[in-house]
Design goal:
Chain A: This is Glycine betaine/proline transport system permease protein/glycine betaine/proline transport system substrate-binding protein. Chain A: One of its GO terms (biological process) is amino acid transport. Chain A: InterPro entries: MetI-like, MetI-like_sf. The complex is a heterodimer of chains A (about 280) and B (about 400). Chain A is mainly alpha-helical and about 280 residues long. Chain A is about 85% helix and about 0% strand. The termini of chain A are far apart. With about 400 residues, chain B is α/β, with parallel strands linked by helices. Among the domains of chain B are: about 50-105 and about 180-265, Rossmann fold; about 275-390, CBS-domain (Roll), CATH 3.10.580.10. In chain B, strand 4 (about 80-85) and strand 5 form a beta hairpin. The chains are: A mainly alpha (about 280), B alpha/beta (about 400). The interface of A and B includes residues 187, 190 and 193 of A.
Chain lengths: ~280, ~400
């Protein structure tokens, strides 16, 4: 009964589509792979050449000020970063940090405008929502494959995969934040004769700031959670250490590298949350 | 000169607006139209004019369409049909760019829940309208400060809205609207969120400000007391239609229909009824013509204990009481000069009832209502009480 239609060759279609995209947009992908990839690599290298003690001091000072001149977070940062250094994972930490920063920045640069657009247009909302669902629920490994096809092996496909996975929250939260601005404030803005962009920048975005920042925080955390998966396509860093440990069944080094990711996650999370409060 | 001229203004919410409008023409009611078309009639064929410097109150219960109507005036809601002329220009038809300019320069709005931006200071909130117009920082700060001084918030400019009380927040709302120096001020239930005492203060203050500024104000409220207090004219709304437009007095004394009448029944009449409404035609004697004999006769005829004395041109001279008149009659005196008393209570035509109520309590004789020295009427205790009790005879006695 169910066999009256032969197997739909969806997989083949996707293969063809990916090949087509690769052929058509090679002129974009190649420079991204070469130039952007080179830029990311050299940033990571540059970061790992800064004396660790200097980085630790800077991070400690920064956490001290963003947390409202409290010592807790700074002490954690000093101890945590020293521990990573002590475990000889410093360079890996810098690579992971670079990956997360680039992935997050790109996610935010794409995500906030997309969220704004979504909040302004029913159509945009209807189209973007299922795409976001797709991005978040499709297993991350699946888009590692086209990432490699488009960008080869290295940090760039890792960033690409992270961006796909990490963008949805900032889009959703931006949309939500703007839609939640009270009708009376929107009316007030209109009644004083604001243009669309005046209303957006002077009323809606400031009102939605906290919600958007919560989305940014989520995005950064998701980007961080991708580092192990990104290492499967050759992104260096702490994720790579975890992956190696997994493949060799070495509990100890796996745990240590994993702990390094946790330390980085906590510092980034607390800093971005505190920025939101200010 | 009328600043705002609203003609046949309608708003129908829903999809089949044309159908709903034609049903309205055929005289269908709001509920029937909702059933037939699924459309809600917000405002139904409203027409009125607002004069320059007038406080025009639009009042009605919730759901009567008053908030929709005020939003049609500055097109926060687009009208389905009809015209809104502001300064001779039909806002219902102008383009977006022009509408924005009108909103920036001619009309400002004050909101029920204040509509202040919580991330801006009082000064920055007040500057908002000027900032939108692209006025430079120094000038807008000066204008905003002026407006804040006007509402008595000159020393709070660096506070944030949530640091202020409700009354003060609404002053900021008012200052923000005034900073633009608009011709028309739209106030949507501006004082409804405030508690009663503060509300009263704000009403007084608005009236004071209005005396200085002479803006054209359109004020929305669901509170008839408030409407009567501040309105030069009042438009009463029900189910999207304007039921009656008139001065507070006209509405109270001549309610257009049962709906208005029922509304008015709840009002504290003492606030709006004045001496002229409850006074009676006085019995008098003419001091130049009449002596004790005529006076006594009239007193007996009417069953009074005293009678007012006037001269030929109705100038109030005083009063005489029955006992004195009787004594004078026995002494065969010719005129009333010797027994004339002048300690009578007097009020003007415009004196509100509650004032009369206080005076009449201790008065030995009915209160005399005078205008330029002439006796216009008298008020007896019963009439005041009847009016306060919303008795039936009030208007007949006027």
């Amino acid at each position: 009964m169910l066999d009256f239609i032969p197997k739909i060759p969806l997989a083949d279609w996707v293969n063809t589509a990916v090949e087509r995209i690769q052929d058509t947009f090679e002129f974009i992908f190649d420079p991204i792979k070469e130039d952007f990839g080179g830029f990311v690599e050299s940033t990571a290298e540059w970061l790992s050449q800064i004396p660790p003690i200097l980085v630790i001091i800077i991070v400690a000072l920064m956490t001290f000020f963003v947390s409202g001149k409290k010592f807790g977070l700074s002490i954690f940062a000093i101890v945590g970063l020293w521990f990573v250094y002590n475990q000889e994972l410093w360079e890996q930490l810098m690579y992971t940090f670079t990956l997360v920063v680039f992935a997050s920045l790109i996610s935010i640069i794409i995500g906030i405008p997309a969220g704004i657009w979504m909040s302004k247009s029913k159509w945009a909302q209807a189209i973007i929502t299922p795409i976001l669902d797709f991005m978040q629920t499709m297993p991350a490994f699946v888009y590692l494959i086209p990432a490699v096809v488009f960008f080869g092996i290295g940090m760039v496909p890792g960033i690409f995969a992270s961006v796909v996975f990490a963008t949805p929250p900032v889009v959703r939260f931006t949309n939500l934040g703007i839609r939640q601005v009270s009708a009376e404030l929107v009316e007030a803005a209109d009644a004083f004769g604001t243009t669309g962009s005046q209303k957006l920048f002077k009323v809606e975005l400031p009102m939605a700031r906290k919600t958007i920042m919560a989305g940014v925080n989520q995005t950064v955390m998701l980007a961080l959670s991708m580092v192990v998966i990104a290492s499967m396509i050759g992104s260096p860093g702490l994720g790579d250490e975890v992956l190696t440990a997994l493949q060799r069944s070495q509990e100890g080094p796996g745990f240590v590298a994993g702990l390094g990711i946790v330390i980085l996650a906590i510092i980034i999370d607390r800093v971005s949350q505190n920025l939101n409060k200010g | 000169m009328s600043v705002i001229k609203v003609n046949n203004l309608s708003k129908v919410f829903g999809k089949k607006t044309k159908e709903a409008l034609s049903l309205l023409d055929e005289g269908y009611k709001k509920e029937e139209i909702l059933k037939k078309t699924g459309c809600t009639v917000g405002v139904n064929r409203a027409s009125f004019e607002v004069e320059e410097g007038e406080v025009f109150v639009i009042m009605g219960l919730s759901g009567s369409g008053k908030s929709t109507l005020v939003r049609l005036l500055n097109r926060l809601i687009d009208p389905t049909e009809g015209d809104v002329e502001v300064g001779g220009e039909n806002l219902a038809k102008v383009g977006k760019e022009r509408l924005r300019k009108v909103r920036r320069e001619k009309m400002s709005m004050v909101f029920q829940k204040f509509g202040l931006f919580p991330f801006r200071t009082v000064l920055e909130n007040t500057e908002f309208g000027l900032e939108i117009q692209g006025i430079n920082k120094e000038e807008r700060a000066n204008k905003a400060k002026e407006a804040l001084e006007l509402v008595g918030l000159g020393s709070f400019i660096h506070q944030y809205p949530d640091q202020l009380s409700g009354g003060m927040q609404q002053r900021v709302g008012l200052a923000r609207a005034l900073a633009n120096d608009p011709e028309v001020l739209l106030m949507d239930e501006a004082f409804s969120a405030l508690d009663p005492l503060i509300r009263k203060d704000m009403q007084d203050e608005l009236l004071d400000l209005q005396e200085k500024m002479q803006k054209t104000i359109i004020f929305i409220t669901h509170d008839l007391d408030e409407a009567l207090r501040i309105g030069d004219r009042i438009a009463l709304m029900k189910d999207g239609s304007i039921v009656q437009i008139g001065t507070p007095e006209e509405i109270l004394v001549n309610p257009a229909n049962d709906y208005v009448e029922r509304f008015v029944e709840d009002v504290d009449r003492s606030k709006v009824l004045t001496a002229s409404h409850i006074m009676k035609r006085p019995e008098t004697v003419d001091i130049e013509k009449h002596g004790p004999r005529v006076a006594l006769e009239r007193i007996r005829e009417q069953g009074l204990s005293s009678i007012y004395v006037v001269d030929r041109s109705k100038q109030l001279k005083g009063y005489v009481i029955a006992e004195d008149v009787k004594a004078a009659r026995e002494k065969e005196e010719k005129d009333l000069h010797t027994i004339l008393r002048t300690d009578m209570p007097t009020v003007g035509l415009e004196a509100p009832i509650h004032e009369i109520f206080e005076i009449i309590h201790d008065a030995p004789v009915p209160v005399a209502v005078v205008e330029e020295g002439k006796l216009k009427g008298i008020i007896v205790r019963g009439a005041v009480i009847a009016a306060l009790a919303n008795g039936s005879g009030v208007t007949e006695d006027a």
